[in-house]
Amino acid sequence: MRILLLNQCFYPDHVATAQHLTDLALGLKAAGHEVTVVASSRGYDNPLNRYPAQETWQGIEIRRIWTPGLGKSAKWRRYVNFAGFWLSASLILLRLPRFDVTVCLTSPPLISTLGTLVVMLKGGVVVPWIMDLNPDEAVAAGWLRQGGVMERVMTLLQKWSFRHAARIIALDRFMAGRLMAKGVPASVIHTDPPWSHDDAVRYDEAGREAFRAEHGLSGKFVVMYSGNHSPCHPLDTLLTAAQELRGEGDLHFLFVGGGSEFEKVKGFRERHGLGNITTLPYQPMAKLAGSLSSADLHVVVLGAPFVGIVHPCKIYNILTLGIPFLAIGPEESHLTDLASRLPAHASYCAGAGEVSAVVNCLREAVASGSRHEMPEARQLAREFAMEVLRSRLIRVIEGACQEK
Questions:
Q1: Could you read off the pLDDT of 368-392 as tens digits, one per residue?
Q2: What domain range includes position 232?
Q3: Which residue among 187, 276, 307, 310 is buried most deeply as judged by most CB within 10 Å?
Q4: Are 226 and 353 in the same domain?
Q5: What CDD domains does this protein's entry cite (predicted)?
Q6: Side-chain half-sphere of 113: how many Cα atoms within 13 Å?
Q7: Number of structural domains the chain divides into
């Protein structure tokens, strides 16, 4: 089959959607399919990073398109970036040949609508892979007013593209529930989370010690938040807890990644003079295992309004490592679903705003000591291995075309 993958990010970018789409592309190619990718020529977090406009990588044809690269510091910049991607992608997609299946992710928002339009013009089927749900996310984050003209138009476009989808990939039961509430038949929805990065993420003792030594963390109990820093994952509770625990010298907070809220974390550290907080940019894949292994406790945060809209995909790498985690968020979410399947020493849970509860969890974790050999977590992680979930997704994509 001829398969088109459409998303803002792809190899060699390192954000989560780029990594998962790259994994899928390689899996589809190994399964004997012709794969073409259309993505941005700019880095997601750093638009100064530029990639070749066209190349063949691992047998995959990559077409990268021009976008303004204005950053994400203001709404208008985001809107211009989105419009630029849409326009450039439209011009390229109209010139490309027909594809049997077009798989659309969700960055920029409503890109599946463009994929649907092209499929209607040229034929084939469209399969949206919902990494986050928009305009729902924009409304929940306060970027878009519910009931406003823009929100109503975007919702109409969203529902129109969903009605024409051969399959829709939801990441958890909460997201599937939101899709069904929008009128998507249950028979169209396939629910599977994104996989862990099995080839890059393994507990690495040597990498752990090297990373900790490089960043002055040797001998510390390291609490790590790693990944996208966004309003969907509000960090206020964790930061306030770090402020309260500033006098406990063996406890250190490490924030690794990027996103719109990353500078706010830096600002909080500097404003309060917190020497127990370190911030680092996204780490390259070659250092990812060492970076993640350097933690004694990982933190995963999910804002209550975003349940079923975004998915805490970082949790699968954490389970693979066998390192305990602290989930900060609502009582009912995919995170608490997973935590309920683990023993008490493997996971901790607290609500947003419950600073004292977070502080108690952190002190309890410190008292328990470093744990990196938790068979229960690693057993659970096997359900989310790439070899399991990627092959299942490939079968869904193949089936969507065959049922046309």
A1: 877 777 888 888 999 999 989 999 9
A2: 205-383
A3: 310
A4: yes
A5: GT4_WbuB-like
A6: 17
A7: 2
